[in-house]
């Protein structure tokens, strides 16, 4: 091939391989069909891993090395083209600014001031003039800040004060009671831990994270919005609502089937023709659309989605933090932090405008769009993602249900690489795609519907729970366990403590916190977490974890004693979703332990969360006479997720899903003892929790016939 051959065309049409002697290149020209398939795949996943390359090569009858080199060449070509486009845009912008400067200079040279008869600008000392302006501006800013603080305090909202020495309680969700003076699993104590003793340097070792609560940077009092800011926000929101309505109501060619997993994605070429957008990063675009029927009337659903606290509660397995910053007449500015339930992945942060508009009777649209133009005292580090206009259309149905069409459209900074075992989940769109939102919304609304029933449904087995109020209190406690468990998985700092497998495991991450708040265990809590991949379908793993006949073989809480179910309440249309009370046989023989468990499974995965309680706490929980928020409880559990790779059958209920499972196991252990800790004790506790979670994972893998390297 001639050396002067055009690089862009050759990269698209052929790849080259060196021969074994290293002296020759063999060029392979690709067919139009192969190029079209590769191009479509590149748009969705520019960095395929080895398995994706292998599968794509089998489909296109190409070697894996050919696929690998094609994507390398294509990324290089795309980078060069982007740089050329950026340079051309910068040259054009530079020329425009230069012409504007020349016009302004010419205007300054000829300006006069007839109304006041003032001197020509060149006749005054410009330097002194600008110095006076700067001084006046600084004075006005200082006065504005003083007034803002005064108004803020007058309204009764003191500035939040951060105490760096005291951690830090999570949500009011945690522990049970016990008198064991040593290391305990999921139980609480009356010993008080002094936070300052935890901050001595000898404990800040590289493999332990003394965690702060997973929350955004402190939200200080934001100055009032100017009229100009309000106008800009309104214009941005109007444009977002219009775009969301257009995208939701448009089908092909705007929406096409993904070449990876056949879900609906936005065709970016058609999108850019219709909507002019500036990319905020060298990005990967994530887009998806799903339709679901929700068992809740449309007006109540709209109100829940617009209430920031209810939004965070409804999607607690996705939204780790949500807060309203400013409220306008027709929209609001809010902060939200999203996460996938594993400490291996950093959360995604958004500052978004949210607006609701009723289009007609029984039809609403809610639109979100990222917005960073307001001067509030809230700083992001380096944004990793930007939400293009996204949202959902809610249509009332005659049976009290709602039809929801959900659309997500996000730019993701491709330089922020996901952990290897979660890469397919994120690149495939299942991580934060519309499917996850609609599946969660459907499951939570089913739970709300069953919560409000006035009598025990036929699917329930009340057992030791005698009243409907006791049933509701137990469901409240289960929901609180799920929220707390989701909270602890959003570890703010993570470090590998030990490695179990070079291929399928992430090692053990350990975080430490001190709790002193009522409703939580008082003392030092060690949380250990590990994520791994299993070559089994999620439903198969879920059924195994729920199987009471083998529970005692892997769960240390059972003390090797068989477990029986003493109460069960179904929380969804799928009878596998339930909250139940378990009793090890050792408790029936005079022991003092019960297990409260809440679990669910949907199309994308599930959770099994459980916590030990003593008999008195269990009786208080089922009596219905105690507020669940006053019951201290410390949940541990397992998160089950699809790995994001395409499979023959996407639904879990059929039991034929061939995708693999991403498993995250997390334990919380309350550590009790003297208030002054020695390094030897800290080593002992962290070693104990590491051994506990590692041995549990080893047992589960052995019982499922899974081994390293599978």
From TrEMBL:
Residue ranges of every copy of the START domain listed in the record: 226-450
Give the PROSITE patterns listed for this entry.
HOMEOBOX_2, START
Q: From the UniProt record, which GO molecular function terms apply?
A: DNA binding; lipid binding
Residue ranges, annotated region (Disordered): 1-24
Entry keyword annotation includes Metal-binding = no
Write the record's keywords in alphabetical order, separated by commas: Coiled coil, DNA-binding, Homeobox, Nucleus, Transcription, Transcription regulation
Q: Which Gene Ontology CC terms are recorded? A: nucleus
Recorded hits in InterPro entries, A to Z, give: HD, HD-Zip_IV, HD-Zip_IV_C, Homeodomain-like_sf, START-like_dom_sf, START_lipid-bd_dom
Q: Which domain of life does the UniProt lineage start with?
A: Eukaryota
Per UniProt, residues of the Homeobox domain are 21-81
One Pfam family from the record? START
Enumerate the subcellular locations listed in this protein's record, separating them with semicolons. Nucleus
The protein's matches in PANTHER family, at most eight in alphabetical order, are given as: HOMEOBOX DOMAIN-CONTAINING PROTEIN, HOMEOBOX-LEUCINE ZIPPER PROTEIN MERISTEM L1
> By what name is this protein known?
Homeobox domain-containing protein
